Amino acid sequence: DLPRDWWKSVVVYQIYPRSFQDSDGDGVGDLRGIIGRLDHLQHLGVDVLWLSPVYRSPMDDNGYDISDYQDVDPVFGTLADLDELIAAAHERGIRLVMDLVVNHTSDEHAWFVESRASLDSDKRDWYLWRDEPNNWESFFSGSAWELDEATGQYYLHLFSRKQPDLNWENPQVRQAVHAMMRWWLDRGVDGFRMDVINLISKTPGLPDGEQAPGAAFGNGFPLVACGPRLEEFLQEMHREVFADHPHAYLTVGEMPGVTVEQARRYTDPANGEVDMVFQFEHVDLDGGPGGKFDVQPLDMPRLRESLMRWQVGLAETGWNSLYWDNHDQPRAVSRFGDDDPVWRERSAKTLATVLHLLRGTPYVYQGEELGMTNSHFATIADFRDIESLNYFEARQHGHADPEALLEGLRDKGRDNARTPMQWDDSPHAGFTTGTPWIEANPDHTEINAAAQVEDPTSVFTHYQRLIALRHADPVVAHGSIQPLAMDHPDLWAYSRSYDGAQLLVLSSFTRAPLPVPDELLEGWGDAEAVLTTSDEALVRSPDGAATLAGWESVVLRRV
Ligand code: TEU
């Protein structure tokens, strides 16, 4: 039997099924495709798979708009395929976590169809209907309210108009969600990643948000994020779904805007809410006054300051999840590393090293283990994502410069993460024999799994080693953390301690050779290098001075 906190020593791998592997040539990835690639995941060594949504969906937001929570969309396969995937993963000792999208449903979900049918529908109150909209803006541009012509009322949709928000104040809604979750646990899934779960408790009355003079919309975010009943709803869910379930499970709540203090409460085991949260601070740092696509330069010290504050804040109570990217974020190596061909592999390995040796549960997003990069989307026609398309459309109407808009979308657009997984150098990167729903990144001829899995110097092999180290050395999963040299402009350093053993992590975030300050290496003279990004990562001169090569990392161990 697994300890209750089994998820502290695991690495989770996120699959975006649409872009992972197509098995039937329709250009869209599917469940049988994933089954066929389990060898890759087992070889990498990951413990848990998180599947982005595969439920029945009109695909307005690639499956985050669900029309049936208890069925698989035909584009991905069948429930039987999913059962087979769960069994095949379990046979290899890999667990499977589903995406749980219950802040909203699709407008084609039976609940919403019934809710919108009439003002006195039994399910009218399952969603948020008002005679007049407030001033909130949707995350996907435009008003967060849509008029239903037939009944003359507006419904709230924080995301697309095809994603109406559920009314969590209604206990029937909560019970229906709990029943659905139990159904999945009974089917054999090992937990849930909970989509925007901190948006389920809205401020009663749904008042207007603060609106700057001249702005088209008010800011509704503070009125929906981490609202008054969030913890009550999470605790109830925990009691109703998980508490008595014999199954070992993992829960991670996706929570934009969550603070360290809030996260500590939500992940305190004593509160019975969630095991960990996805916080957004480090992925919001490069946004500007104009929002996420108003991209600002970001230096390493700000990134480090943020992540290390989360490390310290959740050191005693609570637990961190650790991620550089996912299906909503640009590729880590292009954003936080250096994707110039000379530095790409080294910086991808260094980013991986820094993240995987922090205290918390690391998440690897498909292709990250190969050092996959952002794509180059030439025109708006190359984009597929509703967030990018709506953003461009809305601002074009406001006569913004289209080239400037495209620049922001190229840097931050979610499609960067959604181009096909790069399996080999063949057409469409081995993802499909048909026409892919989104073009593969042309760099797949260089960057692909086939070229990396057996290469001892590859990014893939480095990820393998990091994952193996977490499994082998309890310091990685359970050690305390000590931030070091926090004022250094280019060196990210920290140590970890557990049961008399210590690790020292030294990572360079610059191209130029980097002298390591002497005091950092005091007492580490004969320490063993348990991991390096290459054989030349750290050069020690006879007098004890040490230099890190550009973008390289070293991990030392002493007892
Ligand atoms: O994302 C929620 C979220 O807040 C953002 O990351 C979102 O992707 C957007 O970029 C805001 O600017 C979750 C899912 O991960 C995302 O794919 C969905 O589109 C969204 O919820 C709605 O379900």
Describe the structure.
The chain has 559 residues and is an alpha/beta fold. The protein folds into five domains: 10-90 and 329-375 and 419-472, TIM Barrel; 110-156, Oligo-1,6-glucosidase, Domain 2 (Oligo-1,6-glucosidase, domain 2, Alpha-Beta Complex), CATH 3.90.400; 173-319, Alpha-Beta Barrel (TIM Barrel); 378-418, no CATH class; 477-558, Immunoglobulin-like. 29% of the residues lie in helices and 16% in strands. The chain contains 18 helices and 21 strands. The chain has an eight-stranded parallel beta sheet. A five-stranded antiparallel beta sheet has the order 14-15-16-21-18. Strands 6-8-7 form a three-stranded antiparallel beta sheet, with no helix packed on it. The longest helix has 17 residues, at 171-187. The protein is globular and about 80 Å long. The mean pLDDT is 97. The structure holds 1-O-alpha-D-glucopyranosyl-D-fructose (TEU). 1-O-alpha-D-glucopyranosyl-D-fructose (TEU) binds next to loops.
How is the secondary structure organized here?
Elements: E1 12-15, H1 31-36, H2 38-44, E2 48-51, E3 55-56, E4 68-72, H3 79-91, E5 95-100, H4 110-117, E6 129-130, E7 145-148, E8 153-156, H5 171-187, E9 191-194, H6 221-224, H7 230-242, E10 250-254, H8 260-266, E11 276-278, H9 281-284, H10 300-313, E12 321-322, H11 332-335, H12 344-356, E13 361-365, H13 386-397, H14 402-412, H15 449-452, H16 459-472, H17 474-478, E14 480-484, E15 491-498, E16 501-508, E17 514-516, H18 518-521, E18 528-532, E19 538-540, E20 546-548, E21 553-558
Parallel strand pairs: 1-2, 1-13, 2-5, 5-9, 9-10, 10-11, 12-13
Antiparallel strand pairs: 3-4, 6-8, 7-8, 14-15, 15-16, 16-21, 17-20, 18-21, 19-20
The structure holds 1-O-alpha-D-glucopyranosyl-D-fructose.
1-O-alpha-D-glucopyranosyl-D-fructose (TEU) binds at residues 61, 64, 101, 139, 159, 195-196, 254, 256, 292, 327-328, 387.
